[in-house]
Amino acid sequence: MQPDDPVCFCFKVSLHKVAGYLNREQPRVPSQLSECLGAGTGCGWCVPDLEQLHDRWQRGEPITLPGSESERALIRSQWQKDRRAERQAGSSQNSG
Questions:
Q1: Separate counts of helices (H) and strands (E) for the chain
Q2: Weakly modelled stretches of the chain, pLDDT under 70
Q3: Alpha carbon of 42 to those of 33, 54, 59, 93: distances in Å?
Q4: What are phi and psi of 6, to 5 degrees?
Q5: Beta partners for residue 47, in sequence order
């Protein structure tokens, strides 16, 4: 993953911005990363990545994630499709 690649696609929060926020603000818990331009507050797909980045930062490890922007975008797209299908299946069970 490159520094300018988005961690949070909803709000276009890059890895570089997250790393800067971690180093500058030193958040105590991963959920505080939402204060970094709203990261993790849109669709929610990036929340596990934000938690992983926070954990890596706390351990003094490099702040990075695997995969390219296009690979991550593809994974997110599939995640969104699966999530929509789950919601539709749930709503059809509730209406019957």
A1: 3, 2
A2: 94-96
A3: 13, 18, 27, 26
A4: -75, 135
A5: none
Q: What is the pLDDT of residue 95?
A: 63
User: Are 47 and 40 within 8 A, CB to CB?
Assistant: yes
The tokens describing 31, both together, are: 């959920």
Residues ≥6 apart with Cβ < 8 Å to 63? 15, 18, 19, 22, 53, 56, 57
How far is Cα 86 from Cα 96, in angstroms, rounded to an integer? 16
What pTM was estimated for this model as a whole?
Answer: 0.88
Tokens encoding 57: 């930062």
CB count, 10 Å around CB of 49? 22
What would the two tokens of residue 8 be? 């949070």
Among 79, 41, 13, which Cα is nearest to 21's? 13
Residue type, 11: F
